């Protein structure tokens, strides 16, 4: 079959050459994958392939483990993004036929470049690799690396745990979305060399939910050996859902859809299933139904980072990062009133948004002692940031340090210049800086000289880490690993610097109470 495929590519090259002679156009690039040939496009010197299948349509196998796609011989067009997983609200097409990936590469040659595979955010519920912030052209070109982004099953399609309720062929349903990621990484291993990449030098990086997915994969046996570095950006996963809580969520979904058994879930239209997500979560007690990775004793045999860092990935260098003001967009982006709080408002608001069981009054008193110049809203955002995603990031970094595993920590302090500076350094702020997509929709960076300088600094560190497993590069401050008790952290700011235990007083304030990950 490969001879047939090579013949097809040769024929396409001749046709492209003929077109070039007639119209003096550069021929469209064609690459051969293990499933069939694909035709991409050129974007300012970078070769781009969009919407390449790495898995078969999941609709006929809903809730089941993914399968590779059927092979093809005709050259498939790879110049348009594929659909995202079905979700409650999205700009663009969505379908259960969503196992597709995108590639940006400086060349279809044998250069064996480092490969950077990005997993998108949106928790496990929403999101897509097609967001303008995730255009990989600048990142690939500046670092001479191959950038890969991808889609996979989300929410109930990827993580509804039905093993205790249904047929034997859906025993993997609670982690189907994670198995999609494993299949995508196998595709990268088997095919990225044809796109100028090195399958032996693969870095996973992802923001928010993407970082959580990476933390989970670090403890998934099926993912062992498929990636060699890991970068989490404001995204952690200490624990997975327990199987009993996950079953309660599945039962709540059945009740919301007025179904008696799992068979109905397998036949209803995807749009109807999504309506069931509006039900109140029986574990959290509010909001819609949460579906994420499950401790199912099949795909996931342990919690990602509990009670310790996974031994399976102890040899994988890891970078763990967060932004200084995560909740200014996580909370303030949805509730403008959070920017205009009074001191009398603060206790109740903190109770609603801190992810730890601690009285708000001593928290407020400590912040006012540490930072007497802060307003009530500033205290609110600082305390909710420290008690939520930053807290879990610190736990992961400490567990890696205790394990003796290579880990580097960063904190993005450089503030957004937008809207008079109200956002600080918010959640998602580092995406545009790392991808160089400063002018894309959703960017908080602006396009000024300071933003470009910060973007180059972060891109160069990420490139160095992807290439060597060490983020140091010439001209930058020396970045030491995260160890105890020093807790060295690179602070990206106007003056980028290495600090010991930044915000240590805030860390100590919250470390005395256990962190329970929402959704467990």
Secondary structure layout plus pairing:
Elements: H1 2-23, E1 30-32, E2 37-39, E3 41-43, E4 46-53, E5 76-77, E6 100-105, E7 113-119, H2 137-143, E8 146-150, H3 155-159, H4 176-191, E9 197-207, H5 209-217, E10 229-233, H6 243-256, H7 262-265, H8 270-275, E11 318-323, H9 327-330, H10 346-353, H11 360-370, H12 376-387, H13 389-403, E12 407-412, H14 429-435, H15 449-468, E13 488-492, E14 497-500, H16 504-511
Parallel strand pairs: 2-5, 7-8, 7-9, 9-10, 10-11, 11-12, 12-13
Antiparallel strand pairs: 1-2, 3-4, 4-6, 6-8, 13-14
Helix pairs in contact: 10-12, 11-12, 14-15
Short description:
The protein is an alpha/beta fold and 520 residues long.
What can you see in these coordinates?
The strands form two sheets. An eleven-stranded mixed β-sheet has the order 3-4-6-8-7-9-10-11-12-13-14, with helices on both faces. A three-stranded mixed β-sheet has the order 1-2-5, with helices on one face. It is globular and about 70 Å long. The chain is α/β, with parallel strands linked by helices and 520 residues long. Helices cover 32% and strands 14% of the residues. Helix 14 crosses helix 15.
């Amino acid at each position: 079959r490969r001879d047939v495929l090579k013949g097809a590519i040769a024929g396409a090259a001749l046709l492209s050459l003929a077109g070039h002679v007639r119209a003096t156009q550069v021929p469209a690039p064609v690459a051969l994958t293990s499933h069939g040939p694909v035709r991409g496009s050129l974007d300012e010197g970078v070769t781009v392939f969009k919407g390449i299948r790495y898995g078969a349509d999941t609709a006929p196998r809903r809730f089941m483990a993914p399968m590779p796609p059927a092979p093809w011989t005709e050259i498939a067009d790879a110049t348009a993004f594929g659909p995202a997983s079905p979700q409650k609200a999205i700009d663009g097409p969505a379908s259960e036929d969503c196992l597709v990936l995108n590639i940006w590469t400086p060349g279809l040659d044998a250069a064996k470049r480092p490969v950077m595979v990005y997993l998108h955010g949106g928790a496990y519920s929403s999101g897509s690799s097609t967001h303008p912030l995730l255009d990989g052209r600048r990142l690939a070109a500046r670092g001479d690396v191959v950038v890969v982004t991808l889609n996979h099953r989300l929410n109930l399609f990827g993580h509804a745990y039905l093993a205790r309720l249904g047929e034997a062929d859906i025993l993997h349903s609670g982690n189907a979305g994670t198995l999609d990621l494993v299949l995508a990484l196998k595709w990268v291993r088997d095919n990225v060399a044809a796109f100028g990449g090195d399958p032996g030098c693969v870095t996973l990086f992802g923001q928010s939910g993407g970082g959580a997915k990476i933390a989970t994969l670090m403890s998934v046996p099926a993912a062992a050996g498929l990636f060699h570095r890991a970068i989490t950006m404001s995204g952690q996963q200490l624990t997975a859902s327990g199987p009993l809580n996950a079953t309660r969520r599945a039962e709540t979904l059945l009740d919301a859809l007025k179904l008696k058994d799992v068979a109905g879930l397998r036949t209803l239209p995807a749009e109807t299933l999504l309506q069931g997500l509006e039900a109140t979560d029986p574990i959290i007690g509010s909001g819609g139904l949460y579906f994420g990775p499950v401790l199912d004793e099949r795909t996931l045999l342990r919690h990602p980072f509990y009670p310790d860092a996974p031994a399976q990935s102890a040899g994988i260098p890891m970078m763990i990062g967060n932004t200084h003001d995560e909740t200014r967009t996580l909370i303030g982006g949805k509730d403008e009133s959070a920017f205009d709080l009074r001191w009398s408002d603060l206790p109740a608001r903190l109770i609603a948004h801190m992810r730890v069981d601690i009285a708000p009054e001593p928290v407020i008193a400590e912040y006012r002692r540490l930072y007497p110049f802060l307003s009530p809203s500033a205290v609110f955002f600082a305390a909710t940031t420290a008690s939520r995603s930053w807290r879990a990031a610190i736990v992961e970094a400490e567990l890696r340090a205790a394990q003796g595993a290579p880990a580097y920590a960063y904190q993005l302090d450089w503030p957004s210049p937008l809207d008079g500076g109200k956002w600080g350094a918010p959640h998602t702020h580092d995406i545009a800086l790392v991808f160089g997509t400063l002018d894309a929709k959703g960017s908080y960076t602006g396009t000024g000289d300071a933003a470009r300088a910060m973007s180059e600094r972060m891109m160069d560190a990420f490139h160095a880490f992807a290439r060597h497993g060490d983020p140091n590069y010439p001209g930058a401050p020396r970045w030491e690993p995260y160890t105890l008790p020093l807790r060295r952290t690179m602070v990206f700011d106007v003056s980028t610097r290495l600090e010991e235990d930044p915000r240590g007083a805030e860390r100590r304030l919250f470390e005395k109470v256990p962190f329970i990950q929402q959704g467990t």
